[in-house]
Amino acid sequence: MAQPSTRQELIEYCKRKLGAPVLEINVAAEQIDDLVDDAIQFFQERHFDGVYPTFYKYKVTQEDIDRGRGRGSSSPVGIATTEVTTSIVGTATTFTYEENSNYLQVPPNVIGVNKIFTFDGTNTITHNMFSVKYQLFLNDVYYWGSTELLSYAMTKTYLEDLDFLLNTQKQIRFNKRQDRLYLDIDWSSVTPNNYFIIDCYSTLDPNDYSRVWNDSFVKLYLTSLIKKQWGQNMMKFTGVKLPGGVELNGRQMYDDAQKEIDLLMEKMSNTYELPPLDMIG
């Protein structure tokens, strides 16, 4: 069908684009499965429709705090030690480095993290019923017309400035190949059973969202990958003449497929890929 909704339907669609069943596609099923995985991975990592913004909520435990504090706790845990030995002026010298395990293990479908939010109820400016915001609404805004909107907006802006200055953004480090979210924060100020809200990007699983199989880029890209693999398989028959004087040209098929892939790569960068954010400051 022209609109595949499963993995197998996508494979059959790409084979038909290459000439099946009129032509025999000389690519093994195992090779095609690998190419499907490569196409989906590229789609998820580069295409703006391959991910979606989401929020993950994580409940902090005492073990997380002890591991994050490391040397700052009475019984340090989670300290990784690395030693490097070299010769300096003929004397063997050893350098010892320690790295704290102040990270949270995140699911493998998370490929990017923007920032984290904390909900601990200790911020009296914007949280809980004793906050300035709540009291402002309770005592002033409740009575209609007692407070001008301009005064309210200016007060809110002032409170947000105080919140920004007194409660700095949490410093994080993340690499999608590690599946670790490092939190460079004061773990001694974190209490158990509070929550971290992680603002992140998660990949679309085609098994859960079947419309991924019908994505226009995935169909074109996978077709070109199969064509390239087909040409690579046929290159071993270069120069061999078949009955009737027909000669297979696997090199030409391989080169044509590579040109198609290069054009798709360029189209991905110019059309489908999210632009990098400018760094100001």
Note the main attributes of this structure.
single chain, 281 residues, alpha+beta, 3-stranded antiparallel sheet, 7 helices, 8 strands
Explain this structure to me?
This protein has helices at about 5-15, 30-45, 60-70, 130-140, 150-165, 215-235, 250-270; strands at about 50-60, 80-90, 90-100, 105, 110-120, 170-175, 180-185, 195-205. By secondary structure, the protein is α+β, with helices and mostly antiparallel strands. The strands form three sheets. The chain has a three-stranded antiparallel beta sheet, with no helix packed on it. The model has no long low-confidence stretch (mean pLDDT about 85).
Q: Outline of this structure?
A:
With 281 residues, this protein is α+β, with helices and mostly antiparallel strands. The chain contains seven helices and eight strands.
SSE blueprint:
Layout: H1 7-17, H2 29-46, E1 51-59, H3 62-69, E2 79-88, E3 91-100, E4 103-105, E5 110-119, H4 132-141, H5 149-166, E6 171-175, E7 180-184, E8 195-203, H6 216-234, H7 250-272
Antiparallel strand pairs: 1-8, 2-3, 4-7, 5-8, 6-7
Helix pairs in contact: 1-6, 2-6, 6-7
- Helix amount, in percent? 25-40%
Count helical runs. Answer: 7
Spell the H/E element sequence.
HHEHEEEEHHEEEHH
Low-confidence stretches: none
Strand content: 15-25%
Envelope shape = extended
Mean of residue pLDDT values: 85
